[in-house]
Amino acid sequence: xxxxxxxxxxxxxxxxxxxxxxxxxxxxxxxxxxxxxxxxxxxxxxxxxxxxxxxxxxxxxxxxxxxxxxxxxxxxxxxxxxxxxxxxxxxxxxxxxxxxxxxxxxxxxxxxxxxxxxxxx
Length: 121
Prior knowledge:
By secondary structure, the protein is mostly helical. It contains five helices and two strands, in the order H-H-H-E-E-H-H.
């Protein structure tokens, strides 16, 4: 799993790490039960603080995308890929709403938005 941290980004490092792990789950590079590196090993390989990795792991654990097992390490949650509940859909919509509104202000069509979502240029 390739992770790249941009030290010049305004996005906090823990969130960059978490977002990239989410991306790897979404595209199938990692699957449920796959192990993640220990916080210490990940921090060393990325040259970041171990507490930053721990913060990313806790964030992902709250979203039920990983399981942190004491003394065993972190794994991709067995239910990381599942059908969203109504509450999860509402949460996603609330977080997407400002982006959708901005896209409308920039006169992007639904087709344009779908292309962005699907990764097409």
